[in-house]
Design goal:
The protein has one domain (about 10-210, about 220-255): 2-enoyl-CoA Hydratase, Chain A, domain 1 (Alpha-Beta Complex). The protein has 10 helices and 8 strands. The chain has helices spanning about 35-45, 70-75, 80-100, 115-120, 150-165, 175-180, 190-205, 210-220, 225-240, 245-255; strands at about 10-15, 20-25, 55-60, 105-110, 110-115, 125-130, 135, 185. The strands form 2 sheets. It has a 6-stranded mixed beta sheet with strand order 1-2-3-4-6-8, sandwiched between helices. The protein is globular, with a radius of gyration of 17 Å.
Length: about 260
C-alpha cells in the first residue's frame, strides 16, 4: 500500500516494547518539508515514551525505500532562507535520531538515494534485502551531500563516501553497503528479512532498557556538535540549490 497524499504519510504502530514508524510519499518515498518535520517530531515523542525500547524505521511499498529530497520542493526554493529551512529538515531528523533514547533499527527494502542514505546511516542497526542498492546523486544536480555526510561517514568512512559521492551516477549494491558497514544484514528476500527483523527486535526489546539507552549514548559519542554542524551544512546546501547549474539540472530531471 502506497500513499497518494502529496504531503506524504507517517504512521506509528506500537506493539509491546517496539514502535514501528512507517513513512511514505507517492514520489518514491521522497521527503517534503512537512514530512521531515513530522518524522523529527515522532522520534522526539517516542524517545520520551518509557513503554518502548526499540524503534523500527521503514517505508511504504515494495520499490524505493527513500528517494531523498522532494524534487518539486527543491525546484520551488527561491531564496537562501527557503533553501536553508528545507535542508534543515534533514538535519533535524538526523539530530532527532542521534538524540533518541531508543535503539533504532532500519528496514531498507529498496533503492536508497541521497537523504534516504542519511536516514539509513542514522539507524543503529539496518536490515536490507538484495534489492536495496544505494547512491549519492547530489553532485549531478549541483549540490553536495553536506547535511548527511557526518552520519554516512560515521558508518562507512571517508574513503567509501568519497567513492560514492564522486561517482554520483553509479549504484552500489546491498552487499557493498554491508561490507562498508551501512547495512548490518542483507537477505535474499523481503520475507526472510522481515522474519529475521521480527526475531531480532523482539530479542532486543527484552533487554534492560536502561542498559540500551546508556549503551546508545556511547555508540553516538562525540556527535553533540552535530546540532550546529548540520544546520550550518543546511545553509550551504540552501545556497547551492539556487545556482543556475542546479536549477537547470532539476528542470532536466523533471522532464
Amino acid at each position: 500500500m502506497v500513499t497518494d497524499r502529496n504531503n506524504g504519510s507517517l504512521y506509528t504502530k506500537i506493539d509491546g516494547k517496539i514502535a514501528t514508524i512507517e513513512f511514505g510519499h507517492p514520489a518514491s518515498n521522497s521527503f517534503v518539508a512537512e514530512l521531515l518535520d513530522r518524522l523529527s517530531a515522532e522520534f522526539h515523542k517516542l524517545s520520551e515514551n518509557n513503554n518502548i525500547s526499540v524503534i523500527i524505521l521503514k517505508s511504504e511499498g515494495k520499490r524505493a525505500f527513500c528517494a531523498g529530497a522532494s524534487f518539486d520542493e527543491l525546484m520551488a526554493v527561491s531564496n537562501i532562507e527557503e533553501g536553508t529551512v528545507f535542508f534543515s529538515g534533514f538535519a533535524n531528523v538526523i539530530n532527532a535520531m542521534r538524540e533518541c533514547k531508543k535503539v533504532i533499527v532500519g528496514r531498507v527494502h529498496g533503492k536508497t538515494v541521497g537523504g534516504g542514505l542519511g536516514l539509513a546511516a542514522s539507524c543503529d542497526y539496518v536490515f536490507a534485502n538484495v534489492d536495496a542498492p544505494i547512491r549519492l546523486s547530489e553532485l549531478t544536480i549541483g549540490i553536495a551531500p553536506l547535511v548527511i555526510e557526518p552520519a554516512v561517514e560515521r558508518k562507512i568512512g571517508v574513503a567509501a563516501i568519497s567513492e560514492m559521492s564522486l561517482a554520483p551516477t553509479e549504484w552500489k549494491n546491498a552487499y557493498w553497503a554491508k561490507e562498508k558497514g551501512l547495512y548490518s544484514k542483507v537477505f535474499d528476500t523481503t520475507k526472510e528479512m522481515d522474519e529475521e527483523l521480527e526475531f531480532f527486535t523482539t530479542k532486543l526489546a527484552s533487554y534492560n532498557p536502561e542498559a540500551l539507552e546508556e549503551w546508545r549514548k556511547i555508540l553516538w559519542k562525540n556527535t553533540s556538535h552535530w546540532k550546529t554542524l548540520l544546520t550550518d551544512r543546511a545553509a550551504i546546501t540552501g545556497k547551492l540549490v539556487l545556482s543556475e547549474f542546479t536549477k537547470n539540472a532539476l528542470s532536466k530531471f523533471k522532464k
